[in-house]
TrEMBL record:
WD repeats lie at residues 435-478, 876-917. GO terms for biological process: primary shoot apical meristem specification; regulation of DNA-templated transcription. PROSITE patterns: CTLH, LISH, WD_REPEATS_1, WD_REPEATS_2, WD_REPEATS_REGION. Residues 272-293, 1060-1089 are annotated as: Disordered. Residues 1079-1089 have a biased composition (Polar residues). It comes from the Eukaryota. This is CTLH domain-containing protein. Gene3D superfamilies: YVTN repeat-like/Quinoprotein amine dehydrogenase.
Amino acid sequence: MSSLSRELVFLILQFLDEEKFKDSVHRLEQESGFYFNVRYFDEMVTNGEWDEVEKYLSGFTKVDDNRYSMKIFFEIRKQKYLEALDKKDRAKAVEILLKDLKVFSAFNEDLFKEITQLLTLENFRDNEQLSKYGDTKSARNIMLGELKKLIEANPLFRDKLNFPTLKNSRLRTLINQSLNWQHQLCKNPKPNPDIKTLFVDHSCGQSQPNGARAPSPVNNPLMGAVPKPAGFPPLGAHGPFQPAPATLPTSLAGWMANPSTVSHPSGFNPITNSPLLKRPRTPPTNNPAADYQTADSEHVLKRTRAFGISDEVNHLPVNILPVGYTGQSHHGQSSYSSDDLPKTVVTTLNQGSTVKSMDFHPVQQILLLVGTSTGDITIWELGSREKLAHKNFKVWDISAFSMPLQAALSSDYTASINRIYSYHGGDDLRNHLEIDAHAGSVNDLAFSYPNKQLCIVTCGEDRSIKVWDAATGAKQYTFEGHEAPVYSVCPHFKENVQFIFSTATDGKIKAWLYDNMGSRVDYDAPGHSSTTMAYTADGTRLFSCGTNKEGESYIVEWNESEGAVKRTYNGLGKRSVGIVQFDTTKNRFLAAGDEFLVKFWDMDSVNLLTTVDAEGGLPASACIKFNKEGILLANRSFDASRVASASVVKSSAMTTFGVANPSAGPSVMDRVTTMPPMIAMNGDNRSLVDVKPRVGDESMEKSRIWKLTEITEPSQCRSLRLPDTTSSTMKVSRLIYTNSGLAILALAANAVHKLWKWQRNDRNSTGKATANVVPQLWQPTSGILMTNVITDTNPEEAVPCFALSKNDSYVMSASGGKISLFNMMTFKTMTTFMPPPPAATFLAFHPQDNNIIAIGMNDSSIQIYNVRIDEVKTKLKGHSKRITGLAFSNVLNVLVSSGADSQLCVWSTEGWEKQTSKSLQIPPGRVAAPVVDTRVQFHNDQTQLLAVHETQIAVYEAPKLERLKQWVPPETNGLITHATYSCDSQSIYVSFEDGSVGILTASTLRLRCRISSTSYLSANPNSRVYPLVIAAHPTEANQFALGLTDGGVIVLEPLESEGKWGTSPPLENGAGPSGLTAGATSTTDQSQR
């Protein structure tokens, strides 16, 4: 329907409303789908007119249109279901369940089961999540607020929630204007015409009810610009679309032949930010491949580096970044030599977790953006080695996602989200977009600029490529055709043609135009390798680099006009794991991370030019990036990003970027201060903060004045002892937060569980665990306790263990006897199984299948048990003493076990065979007990492994169990009783027998804060109380809880004014603490004590 026809509908809606035809108004709103009347929707929901609500919604969306729509229909049908239960109308509730709610079981079977279980309750408010459900009216009001948010966020309702601003009786006014105009055309107009009908044109003649017919508009000169009575002209008739160009060739050769001879200007004026954020134009229906770019777009689509916003994408002038050097011209490539390549390590940045990608800021070229395997991102200023901004991965709004993704995020955290931030200088890093992009992982992303619209191109495990509006997150295109997961994308623009190269893990390369016509080319990458493609900065040469399944790597240049390999470079080694990474610089050199080196090639020579070892410490496949000038190079060194430079700093002793080689022309710092403003992704056009490096003396001064944070008084932190009416003094053996963070579960030595729940109120709007609000010791109305089956032996001698289901509905637990499965809502025992001997000593749910449990036993075996079929699938034997720890990695597909024999074992979860084992090295001078608990926990990156022993904290790299770091506390603290990662894996909380708690920075194992027992325990010289177990809050990185020997549970948080537990000690000379290499012991903290 044309735009004018759509406006006519609005005029009719206004007319019907003014004439009080209410039913007709809402019927037309629904049937046209042009205007969603929120007020009418409010009335229907408030009155519980559910059938009418869904009927009205059907004019705008369907259940399965998107995640917002699904959530809208689910909330409405759930409310209808709860109201039927509240009225004790079980028959109606069952009908709603089967007719209306069952459709959602395909997306979240567990949720449907929970809803079904409500039928078994006398009062559904006994369900923990519905305990706050009030009366029907208040429940509807609460739901209505949620529905409005969903509707506002739903792209299908965009531009449909506001009625256009019209003057009263606009349709009547237009008709009167038409009649007045017709009257003016009368040959003998009467002073007071008698208008009797609108069905025919008015005339003051006598032969027709309204007089004679008016003259034909075609013959009347006054009518030249008036639309013909046949109807409104289509909008396209006046649109901007040009005649269709000749059909585009279907091969890559056809795109690239005859290079353009157009001379492009050396620079363009910066455009305002508004065109970047306007909605994309509707493409012409007769020419889906039409391109409306002008010559100034040639540089726009050059391949951008991961997570970076290039100067081309932001449409900044191409001449703002000086790429020449003293005595060099832009085109004089021959003047470059290998001396221009970075070789000297200037500084080391300790990121804290495994680095996955890096990129330099397109303008402020000493700003480095780093992305990690845990989803965290950090912006570093290289001059001062300062973290300017940092964002931990945390889902912004899980309710905005599809039901399957919500289930994945709440269960195993293996889902992938495409996330965009906008950076405004300094520490101002803002959330911009969060997109449910692909089923499975998002493997690559890049920025593009089709039709003058800033977009994001993504690819993923679901074998598709998708294009998204960078401003709104709306999906523009989906390209399908690969038969394997898509590994990388490379958007580009050349000779007035915009396209995307994509590569898949089966070695296929395809190219796509921004249309829906399918792939234009289909080539094989050398060796059928997983390949990344990249153009030189000037867009004239195309390269690719990758590794195949046999470990053979290839780096080649392509002949674009022929679609064939032009040149294959020598020097890449064969690898056993990983894919080689590469980059281009100065339109002249190639660089790749390979064989623990950075290798360089001259683009015009197939032989290796030179190599750099970055002073050692590089992984086999280093991740490297040059800045736009080709001066700086960043590479990954285990969990640190190393930055090397030859042109800026020649001496390895220099620790700042303040001194430049005079022959290299102006230094990077000289250039930074003159950069123009950056057009941010959210549309703001503002200047970035000038970045000036701090001198080395300041860093040294900081190093001297840093001091360990000591907390010895209650006033120095927030602590809360959880209320306990049972007066039990039995020690807390196990402690855990629920996955939602709303409660804490403890298991005491007497086999009894205790559950504390926080309530939502004015002081605690989220309802999450906090030291500021006292929780309730939860018990169901039945008054029963969750108590494990115990044997005749002393319960104090039993080894308790438990594991919580991902949705917090069930807990599996044992205290030396049978394993019990409890309902967390009713505390009822659902079933018991596996009577001893042997007795269970540790429990862990399989991350991909809740029905599979790994059970460690006191006979040193591990049983892989299927709950659903009540069957032991296999038994694993590799330890000599009882099992004390189990941890799954869903990235490596392994299970790591630890035992009282101080041994670690790695098992494949595919065939359950043993891969490797390693015994913990007891520190010199320490003697470990013959039987001692060793606990294991995976870092968020699912690769690094924390091992906790009474004598040490150690970090290993799985699956080979190479020890990366070790921390040994002084003997004055007593033995370590327990330790755990914080929820973001940035900190490690360690408890000791002397009652103190140490907080380590996870990336360095440096102690930064020590909490004395005097800050959270009341003074009692006759009692020796200390924490046996420690648990970290699942979403609040600075909150943890302690389970004490006297049966108490303490929640600890830093003061709100502090916000965190101390500050990390500065790195020594930028190289990190000594003694953190594999197999070494860090002794720096011992001197601090």
